[in-house]
Design goal:
Elements: H1 4-11, E1 25-31, E2 38-42, H2 54-61, H3 74-91, H4 95-110, E3 118-125, E4 131-138, H5 142-152, E5 156-157, E6 162-163, H6 164-168, H7 175-183, E7 196-198, E8 251-252, E9 255-256, H8 257-294, H9 318-324, H10 347-350, H11 357-375, H12 377-392, H13 404-408, H14 414-426, E10 431-439, H15 457-472, H16 482-485, E11 498-499, H17 517-526, H18 541-544, E12 545-546, E13 563-570, H19 576-603, E14 606-611, H20 615-645, H21 658-668, H22 699-704, H23 707-730, H24 737-769, H25 787-800, H26 817-845, H27 852-872, H28 875-888, E15 891-892, E16 895-899, H29 918-931, H30 934-955, H31 973-984, E17 990-996, H32 1003-1009, H33 1021-1029, H34 1032-1035, H35 1044-1051, E18 1061-1063, E19 1080-1082, H36 1101-1113, H37 1125-1128, E20 1132-1134, E21 1141-1149, H38 1156-1177, E22 1180-1184, H39 1188-1191, H40 1193-1220, H41 1223-1246, H42 1253-1279, H43 1291-1325, H44 1331-1363, H45 1374-1383, H46 1397-1400
Parallel strand pairs: 4-7
Antiparallel strand pairs: 1-2, 3-4, 5-6, 8-9, 10-13, 10-14, 11-13, 12-13, 15-16, 17-21, 17-22, 18-19, 20-21
């Protein structure tokens, strides 16, 4: 049942409803609440011409109201004018929307036929006790509603990078919601309707809907036509282009064409191999059957051997020789059983070795160097350490570069230059302090996207108190507060920018309660312009709320938001003192938030995730400090391994091993408790079987160990790194954390390998020419062995000593320590030189890369490797000589002052071993013979070809980027903040398009910049950016552009009479916003020519600068939102005189960037857009966003990777070819090194390792260490040659034998020095909690070690044995070699088959 008041209200207009010439409301009858706007009086009277300011009415509603009655009065017109001015600040740039807006509200307020479409449905009493309207029905046709909405839907507001519809229509998506927002009653003091206006769709029978013809923004009429920015229908559509990274490419099904071709080729190769193998087996069986039938037993005995060595020996490689020498084997049927030269008329001439003069020079040089350093060890140590000590003085100038910008961006790169330009002219980007507030849940596994709604009265009350505490927070020691360090867009006396939901409530909840807060929040979310915070810039919901659910119809449920987003914006400055001021307060905020994070779940059931301006650098440094322990532990593990295993690569002649001694002691110990046997002869008792109380440990454990020597070698590695740092610090090259963590690993990998090779070679020299050499058969043995055994022993020893400068039989058997050390260096020095030069050149070429982190790393790495090599061939040689003297003096390792007495010297029996350690025996007896079988070679080649194909396919899937979370400790609070950013932040970073070095006062430049005037260029800066926003998938631009020049010119529009104002008495004086309108007038009111949308009459030259300065100091208000101080105060840069604009920027935003690829693609897209703008307008334009400088590396990193690896491989090819004396072998080594790096890159694609500066450094390391794996093997292969040409019938057998010798010679050292050492270090590194260390060091290095070992010790030997270049024997004179060859029956020493291994080993 209706109340009396409602019955009364419904009576008004009931008799006049639908009557033309009658009003439903007229005049104002007072406000309904304190502070509210006047409300209209319901009436049923006819329209009247009384009490109407006709001039004001015509100025507001047009010429249609020049005469005749109306339904409005002057006081209503004043209220209408105030409301229209508020809206037209945002919509005046589009005449169609502006005119439709005025027509709509003028008709509603003043139409003489108001009663035909407007009906008062309820009334109320005003404060003056008059009856006023409470709600009305306004009937509007769908035709007009759609046209009205369409004309306003796309109007942009530059100051907010948003749309006018967000502000005047609550973000409406159709005309119904647009009308509803405008009609809903608004709170007092808030722009909008003071009473409820409803918009029913169907009018009553007696009434008609308002149905004027709406203006269209695309009409040619100047009173309607809008510009492209506000009316997409008239925009020149930009053609669609693919997004960065999604360019079309060739595919066959789901795989790329390259992958398809590789798979097809590999499949064909595999099928061919299998078919060839089957054919070979078939042919071989048929041949064996034929020989068994056709050949008689007497035929074999007719052949007369051409060599004294006619016995049969199972030579591995003979079968391959039989298949490789083709037709020539017909004439020399026994060549596969004999040595080299049997197929030629002159064996001696055939055996003449090829000489490589560089080899001879290098060996003689290293021999002399070794002799000097071994003869004068203390002088060498003093001289070298003095020089290196001077280099270490450079540590006084040591600087560690931590700034990521200076680390990863070249100082002359485009991005860093643009950043510095932006910082200089517009100021550095702000320092954000951001907090995410969510509901606390007991389960840690709950997904962020499943968080419950956070908004409630209790949570708002709690957070309001927290914000008060943060505003009052004081730093130590200077007591700075937020007000001292925050960014204030309206000047020093303005308010801080705090983007928080509390800004919608005026930072005070006292005026709200548990029932009213939600309606207010919804109203602010739908129309942020009605809830301006104190810094006077609208806060749209994405800035303060996260995780807002969206219904199927597109409407957003703001009250169900999952997170509050709170951002405090601190000022930034190029002044370090100002920076430190902000950082001091940020550290205080960090401590406060750490405490809040612990108590908020208990106090309010809330969780926070947060970040401050100092957080990232502090947490990264904390991660580096935590990683130091793991890195040091990894180093210690490698040190321990090297010191214990050095020198154990060969077997001592004297004594037993530790375990054998302990076993013997355990067996003999029970004899203490048994009665002694009286019948045994004392002379027959082996003293080793005598029971003892304590174990009789072997002498080798005390004297023969090389712990001190190993530690000294490691100390040289540390010294080389330290000296390199000192040297480059003198040159001003800064160090980095990557250098500190990686260089020692690299130098250890390179240096330890050389240490093992030198020590193992000295062990061999000791076996041949040491104190006990006389007991070793083979040279000068008084009792000859049987011919086969003697020859076998002699040949093996020749293999091990074929580097001697003179004939072995012409020199004394025993050599001094100095001579032995010199011979060891003479043999291995060229190999060390080869690997060192190759690595140094490869690393040094990396210095041409402009990225400072990579360039500095390359310099430090090259210097460290070079200095380490110098130390190894000088002071380490001296240390080897001193250590050998200690051993021969029976002094204890680690305690050289203690000397153990020598045991009784007895004649040693024929040794059971050949001086080889376990690894060497395994390689000699099992690995090398197996690897060099023809079938195994084919399988190896096919396997590595498969790895290559898989690697190339995988490389195509390597992604670029480096997730910052990886650089943080696993327990860092920033990880949670990054996760919340991904889950809840629905806005992208701002991007600025900077225009510089042009005359902004000229009309041509203005037309090249603007977008809201009819004479603006079709492809102006503003229009092009709007066009790019419409193809956001390829441009990554989401928001309308903030165009300062358009807002500035519209600020001058006299229609906005509260914006630009001058004194009536003196037009050169501007009015402040507080001065009375009676003293002021619009700037362009009497301007000639007048302000118009064609830009004719708009200011140029000095007049432009005159008005521009005033606009930039004008504070925005509800009367004039176009004032420039808040939104554009830093958008322009003037010269020192202030008379010329030197640069300006146009601000917009990227789409939300969630991944590394998004950031990289946004960088590429922005630069493409800037280049197109420059091309179309002729202006100098560049883009800037905060993240560009960090992602600049990815614009060039692929080219840099190709460049540095390509140059490194070229250096490897040149150096190895020259020092090895064979382009064929150099090419093979280079190819294997390249395959190693390709394999590492292939694993990157599979193991989730992105390509960035860190992984690029590791790829450079891969190149260097791959050389280390290959260089020694290749050098040993080339140094054991016989001089046979490649195409000789016996060439295949000879290459197999050389490869076997090389593997036995240096294989154990490579395995011990690099592979096992690094594997131990990497095993410790696997314990790290740092994802950065795990992914970019552990994963990459373990891949590198395994790949390098497999390629260097499996693939390289196979390829060299098949296609390696002819070698060079190490004899220094042809005559000496010939005499040696004659004694050995002109035959190159073959390696023995398994049936002879019992004799040789």
């Amino acid at each position: 049942m209706a109340t009396p008041r409602l019955q009364e209200s419904l009576r008004y207009g009931s008799d006049v409803a639908g009557k033309e010439g009658h009003c439903a409301m007229r005049g104002s009858c007072g406000a309904g609440t304190w502070g509210g706007k006047p409300l209209p009086c319901p009436t049923d009277e006819a329209a009247s011409a009384d009490d109407v300011d006709r001039d004001l009415l015509v100025s507001l509603c047009g010429a249609d109201y020049t005469e005749g009655p109306t339904c409005c009065t002057t006081d209503q017109l004043q209220t209408l004018k105030e409301n229209l001015v508020l809206a037209e600040n945002m919509i005046a740039s589009c005449p169609a929307c502006r005119n439709n807006f005025r027509n709509f509200w003028c008709t509603f307020t003043c139409s003489p036929d108001q009663a035909t479409f407007l009906n008062v449905t309820s009334t109320q009493k005003s404060l003056t006790d008059k009856t006023v309207a409470k709600s009305v029905d306004f009937f509007v046709s769908e035709h007009f509603g759609e046209g009205f909405y369409s004309s306003c839907a796309k109007i942009q507001v530059g100051a907010t990078n948003g749309y006018a519809m967000d502000l005047i229509g609550g973000g409406a998506k159709n005309y119904s919601t647009f009308f509803k927002f405008m009609g809903d009653v608004k709170d007092p003091g808030t722009p909008g309707s003071p009473f409820q206006i409803n918009f029913p769709v169907v009018p009553p029978p007696q009434m008609t809907a308002f149905d004027a013809i709406p203006r269209n923004c695309a009409d040619n009429d100047l009173a309607s036509r809008c510009t492209c920015i506000d009316c997409p229908d008239i925009c020149q559509q930009l053609p669609d282009i693919p997004a960065p990274g999604s360019e079309p490419s060739c595919h066959v099904g789901a795989i790329s064409c390259l992958s398809f071709i590789l798979i097809l080729a590999y499949g064909l190769a595999l099928a061919s191999f299998i078919l060839g193998y089957v054919l070979q087996i078939t042919i071989r069986k048929r041949r064996e059957n034929y020989e068994r039938v056709a050949l008689s037993p007497d035929g074999a005995s007719d052949s007369t051997p051409l060599s004294p060595r006619s016995h049969s020996r199972g030579l591995i490689g003979a079968s391959s020789l039989a298949h490789s020498d083709g037709g020539e084997s017909i004439h020399h049927s026994d060549s596969r059983h004999l040595g080299r030269g049997v197929s030629l008329l002159d064996p001696i001439e055939t055996a003449q070795p090829r000489q490589y003069r560089l080899n001879t020079v290098l060996r003689r040089t290293f021999y002399r160097l070794g002799l000097i350093t071994a003869t004068y060890p203390w002088l060498t140590l003093a001289a070298v350490f003095t020089v290196f000590g001077l280099l270490n003085l450079g540590w006084q100038q040591f600087e560690l570069e931590k700034d990521p910008v200076r680390l990863w961006v070249a100082p002359d790169s485009e991005s860093i230059i643009q950043k510095e330009y932006f910082d200089e002219h517009f100021g550095p980007f702000y320092r954000p302090e951001q907090i995410y507030v969510t509901v606390h849940e007991s389960s840690d596994t709950a997904s962020l996207t499943q968080k419950p709604p956070v908004l409630s009265w209790d949570s708002l009350k709690y957070w309001a108190g927290i914000e008060v505490e943060i505003r009052e927070l004081r730093s130590s020691p200077n007591g700075y507060t937020l007000d001292d360090v925050c960014f204030k867009p309206t000047g020093p006396d303005g308010f801080c920018v705090v983007q928080s939901v509390m800004g919608w409530f005026g930072n005070d909840l006292d005026s709200y309660d548990r029932e009213s807060w939600s309606n207010h929040l919804l109203g602010c979310a739908e129309s942020p312009v009605n809830c301006l915070p104190d810094f006077l810039q609208p806060l749209t919901p994405p800035y303060v709320l996260g995780g807002i659910p969206v219904d199927e119809d597109g409407s957003k449920r703001y009250l169900d938001a999952q997170s509050l987003v709170v951002t405090y914006v601190a000022s930034n400055s190029l002044d370090e003192a100002e920076q430190e001021k902000a950082m001091e307060w940020e550290r205080a905020l960090r401590s406060y938030l750490q405490d809040l994070g612990e108590r908020a779940p208990v106090e309010a059931g809330l969780d926070i995730a947060w970040s401050t301006g100092v957080s990232l650098e502090e947490e990264i440094n904390k991660s580096a400090n935590a990683d130091i322990r793991i890195v040091v532990l990894s180093y210690l593990a490698m040190f321990f391994y090297v010191s214990l295993t050095l020198g154990n690569g060969s077997v001592e002649r004297e004594g037993e091993g530790v375990f054998a001694s302990l076993i013997r002691w355990g067996r003999n110990f029970p004899k203490f408790f048994r009665p002694a046997s009286s019948g045994s002869s004392v002379l027959s008792i082996d003293s080793r079987n005598t029971p003892t109380i304590f174990p009789r440990l072997p002498r080798k454990l005390f004297v023969g160990s090389k712990v001190v020597l190993g530690l000294f070698g490691i100390a040289l590695v540390i010294l080389s790194v330290s000296s390199s740092v000192g040297f480059f610090s003198i040159l001003g090259v800064k160090s980095t954390l990557i250098i500190a963590e990686v260089i020692p690993f690299l130098v250890l990998a390179v240096g330890v390998d050389n240490v093992f090779i030198l020590v193992n070679e000295l062990d061999r020299q000791n076996l041949l020419h040491g104190p006990n050499a006389s007991g070793f058969s083979g040279f000068g043995a008084t009792t000859p062995l049987s011919p086969p055994q003697s020859r076998s022993r002699l040949q093996f020893e020749h293999t091990q000593s074929n580097d001697e400068s003179v004939d072995a039989a012409s020199v004394p058997l025993y050599l001094t320590v100095e001579e032995r050390v010199a011979r060891a260096l003479a043999k291995m020095g060229p190999s060390i030189l080869l690997s060192t030069i190759t690595e140094v050149v490869a690393f040094a070429l990396g210095a041409i890369v402009p990225m400072p982190a990579v360039r500095n790393f390359a310099l430090y790495a090259a210097g460290s490797v070079l200095l380490n090599a110098i130390l190894q061939v000088t002071v380490f040689i001296s240390a080897m000589a001193l250590d050998q003297r200690r051993i021969e003096a029976n002094r204890v390792d680690c305690f050289p002052c203690i000397r153990i007495s020598s045991r009784i010297a007895l004649l040693d029996p024929v040794p059971s071993g050949s001086g080889l350690g376990f690894l060497a025996k395994f390689i000699r007896r099992h690995y090398a013979p197996f690897l060099l079988r023809p079938m195994v070679k084919g399988a190896v080649l096919l396997s590595f070809a498969g790895v290559l194909v898989c690697s190339i396919i995988s490389i195509q899937h390597i992604e670029l980027g480096l997730d910052q979370r990886l650089a943080l400790p696993s327990d860092s609070y920033l990880i949670s903040w990054f996760d919340h950013v991904d889950a809840f932040l629905d806005i992208g970073p701002p991007v600025y398009f900077v225009v510089r070095d042009t005359d902004f006062t000229s009309r041509s430049t203005q037309q090249a910049l603007c977008g809201r005037f009819t004479t603006c260029q079709d492809l102006s800066v503003a229009n092009l950016l709007e066009g790019e926003r419409n193809r956001r998938k390829s441009s990554f631009i989401s928001d309308p552009t903030s165009s300062w020049i358009d807002d500035f010119f519209h600020w001058l529009n006299p229609v906005s009479d509260r914006c630009c104002r001058v004194r009536k008495t003196d037009s050169s004086q501007f009015c402040s916003d507080r001065e009375s309108p009676r003293r002021c007038q619009p700037c362009y009111q009497d301007h000639d020519p007048e302000w118009n949308i064609t830009m004719r009459g708009l200011p140029q030259g000095e007049e432009f600068v005159h008005y521009l300065h005033q606009w930039l100091v004008s504070i925005p208000s509800s009367d004039c939102s176009l004032a420039g101080l808040a939104a554009f105060g830093t958008a322009l840069s003037f010269d020192d005189s202030g008379d010329k604009v030197v640069a300006s920027h146009f601000r917009t935003s990227h789409t939300p960037l969630k991944s590394q690829s998004d950031y990289i693609n946004s960088f590429h897209a922005a630069h493409r857009i800037a280049d197109e703008i420059s091309e179309q307008t002729g202006l100098d334009v560049f883009p800037y966003s905060l993240h560009y400088v960090f992602f600049d590396q990815y614009a060039h990193i692929i080219a840099i990777t190709e460049q540095i690896l390509g140059l490194g491989l070229a250096a490897v090819l040149i150096v190895t070819a020259l020092l090895l004396g064979s382009w064929r072998t150099g090419t093979i080594v280079t190819g294997v090194v390249a395959l190693t790096v390709v394999t590492v890159m292939g694993v990157m694609g599979v193991w989730g390792i992105n390509l960035n500066a860190i992984s690029l450094v590791n790829l450079v390391i891969s190149l260097g260490i791959a050389v280390e794996f290959c260089a020694h093997v290749a050098r040993a292969f080339m140094s054991s040659g016989s001089g046979l040409p490649v195409d000789h019938p016996a060439g295949q057998k000879e290459r197999d034998e050389r490869m076997w010798t090389a593997l036995v010679d240096v294989g154990p050292s490579v395995l011990s020095g690099i592979t096992f050492t690094k594997l131990i270090g990497m095993s410790v590194l696997a314990l790290t909690r740092s994802k950065l260390l795990e992914i970019y060091y552990f994963r990459m290095w373990i891949t590198l070690i395994i790949s390098g070992a497999l390629h260097g010790l499996v693939l390289l030997p196979v390829v060299l044995s098949l296609a390696g270049g002819p070698g060079f024997p190490l004899q220094e004179a042809d005559e000496e070699w010939m005499s040696h060859a004659i004694r050995n029956d002109y035959e190159y020493t073959p390696f023995l088959a398994d049936d002879d291994s019992g004799i040789s080993d």
